[in-house]
Specification:
Strands 1, 2, 3, 5, 6, 8, 9, 10, 11 and 12 form a ten-stranded mixed β-sheet that branches. The chain has a two-stranded antiparallel sheet with strand order 4-7. It contains 13 helices and twelve strands. The protein is of the alpha+beta class and about 500 residues long. A hairpin with a 3-residue loop joins strand 5 and strand 6. The radius of gyration is 39 Å and the shape is elongated.
Length: about 500
């Protein structure tokens, strides 16, 4: 009934990097695009080329979303060098036979965001789309082989022919470009190796945010096999819906074709996983990724041919709806992990203060509820947010921010109270010292006053010998001071006894 007219699959590898200052993203971009030269090279070469979004890529996005995604302080986009990309063609996996069509890497993009979240997006397409060669089973099995990071199914180039030039750039993919086998995990590590070349600097090496399978986004464009089917009909629509229910779950989960019978059939009216804006287009979405399934209804040519406008729109405009939501999800997960790490730190307050500022920054920059003027694309953006549980996760993140603010406020109050208590203790210590000094000097002053006021005492003390006079004055002073101290000790003891008795 159906012939595959065109298809593509994007494999998304999310990762996280620690950007230690505001200039880290700019430094990172310079490091990625820096030209290198090997001893055997005749020209300067680079692995990555920075390429901002073109206007058609951001068609129908709201103006502030366009400004956000185009601002170099928020987001940087890089593409694999086109000359190197051309050599990554006619590939096959171990599951394929030599008679089956191969595939090629049609694009490899690298997206880096202001908060250290990044995405490596590798898009594959079949070498040839022919009704007698390409099947849905071929697509499902290929996607399952490449999406799995745990199993590590290898792939390699058929009919490998070495290409000259730029050995320093080709050094990033040595095995694949020598016709040897390579897994998807090895390819990702090779492409991201420039991110880890600096041991010290404003950014750290990347940390994977997935380790089992890669989220995917892809599309399949069908056309009816019967030549007499020109216009859509109720029968064609029903057959298309049967095709979606048979293959949609397996495609978005990147499972082999043999796993189809393990899942229950879902209705296209399921609001969680399916969105059908037109009779010939179904978007299926989940936490693991999504797929677009459509068929050429022969109306206006928008769905006709391998380079159709519909497939180009699915490849760019619709994919960016997923990318924006996926960035939000990975950012929230990263902030949650930072909060947990800070809680285990011996001095969590500085890290929590920075985390709070980062979350405020994230909310102000890129947590928006609408993304597009187009009702269909805005609905897809909202549905991706729902598929990724972003609303619930963001509410939980806000609760964490509230708890962080409460903790920091209590910490500030405790510090203020401790400072006040320290000041009171210091003031009490100063008062005690002054009291002791006063206690010692007061009897001396009293004694001196008595001596001067009483001629009898003065005559008795002044017998004409200075040394004896001084000793007599000291003895009298000590006696008076001792009596005063003894009286003070007795009174203090009585007060303590009364307090102890009152407590008992």
């Amino acid at each position: 009934m159906w012939t595959i007219q065109d298809t593509f699959t994007k494999f998304v590898f999310p990762f996280n990097m620690e950007l230690r200052d505001e200039s880290a993203l700019e430094t990172l971009a310079s490091s990625l695009t820096a030209a290198t030269r090997d001893a055997t090279d005749t020209a300067d070469c680079s692995l990555w080329v920075e390429r901002p979004f073109a206007d058609p890529d951001l068609h129908n996005l709201l103006p502030y979303v366009k400004r956000y995604i185009r601002d170099a302080h928020n987001h940087r986009r890089f593409v694999l060098d086109p000359d190197l990309l051309e050599t990554l063609n006619n590939l096959q996996t171990s599951r394929m036979s030599d008679s089956e069509p191969g595939f090629y890497l049609s694009s490899v993009d690298l997206h880096l965001f202001f908060n250290g979240i990044g995405f490596l997006v590798a898009e594959i397409r079949p070498v040839a789309c022919d009704a007698s060669e390409l099947s849905t089973t071929w697509i499902e099995d290929l996607n399952a082989d490449l999406a799995s990071l745990g199993q590590g199914n290898p792939f390699w180039q058929r009919d490998f022919l070495p290409t000259p030039g730029c050995e320093s750039r080709r050094h990033a993919l040595p095995a694949l470009l020598r016709g040897e086998k390579m897994t998807m995990g090895q390819l990702i590590h090779s492409l991201l190796s420039p991110l880890c070349q600096r041991a010290e600097g404003p950014f750290s090496c990347y940390e994977p945010l997935v380790d089992t399978f890669l989220p995917v986004y892809g599309a399949i464009l069908l056309r009816p096999s019967e030549k007499n089917v020109v216009r859509p009909s109720k029968q064609v629509d029903e057959q298309f819906q049967e095709f979606v229910m048979a293959h949609g779950i397996v495609l978005r989960k990147t499972l082999p074709s043999g796993n189809r019978n393990r899942f229950s059939r879902q209705s296209l009216t399921d609001p969680l996983h399916h969105y059908m804006p037109y009779h010939n287009v179904v978007h299926t979405q989940s936490l693991e990724g999504g797929f677009v399934l459509a068929y050429d209804n022969g109306d206006g040519g928008y769905f006709s041919g391998r380079q159709s406008g519909a497939m180009q729109s699915f490849r760019t405009n619709y994919f960016y709806m997923m990318l924006l939501a996926l960035h939000q999800r990975m950012s929230i997960l990263s902030y949650t992990a930072e909060s947990a790490d800070a809680a285990c730190h011996s001095h969590p307050a500085p890290r929590l203060r920075k985390l709070r500022e980062d979350i405020y920054d994230f909310t102000a920059r890129c947590y928006f509820s609408q993304a597009s003027y187009s009702e269909e694309r805005d609905q897809l953006y909202r549905r991706w947010q729902r598929a990724f549980n972003i609303g619930q996760m963001y509410d939980e993140l806000k609760e964490q921010v509230h708890e962080i603010e409460g903790y920091l406020a209590q910490l500030a109050r405790d510090e203020e109270l401790a400072t006040r208590e320290q000041e009171l203790r210091q003031e009490a210590e100063r008062t005690r010292i002054i009291s002791l000094i006063t206690l010692v000097l007061l009897p001396v002053s009293i004694g001196a006053g008595i001596i001067q006021a009483s001629p009898i005492v003065a005559k008795w003390l002044h017998n004409g010998t200075p040394v004896i006079d001084a000793l007599l004055i000291i003895i009298v002073t000590v006696m008076i001071s001792g009596l005063a101290i003894l009286w003070l000790v007795i009174q203090t003891g009585r007060i303590r006894t009364r307090k102890r008795a009152a407590r008992e």
